[in-house]
Amino acid sequence: MNFGKTEEIAALILERFPKLELKLSEDSELQNQIEIPADQLVLVCGYLYKELKLYFDFLNSITCIDNGVEAGTFDLIYTLTSIPFEISVHLKIVVSRELNNNISVDSISAIWKSADWHEREIFDLFGLKFENHTDLRRILLPSDWEGHPLRKDYQEQAVYHGIKVKY
User: What is the distance between the alpha carbons of residues 48 and 122, in angstroms, rounded to a whole number?
Assistant: First the structure.
């Protein structure tokens, strides 16, 4: 997908939601992004799914990036594809780390069922919570594991159930 397509998609979003603040980024030729406010995620995703000109019927992935304690943010990148129109788009939201263990984002699993697994994985490994998720619990680690291993400030526990963790 070229940047022109991303601009066209952004224009359609702004046509529908004129007061929405969008940012287009040209990080690379392959990963142009539309940054949207986190509190507008469900609204925009619902539109991208339902709009007949776009019909983004497939959520490829949700990627979480920990920008570190110094930056104070996480980035969530949502990769969407319209199979019938053969186009993809990357939506980006930035989430503040200031809330510490109460960081939350609205779930999009009601729009795309595949978000269920991705959101659970991000919850498990980064500690971000997804509001209105129907089954938000760890998916890769045991339910009593301490911390979230993909966070840059993660402190690995020394022992888990009598088993030495660090070697």
Answer: 22
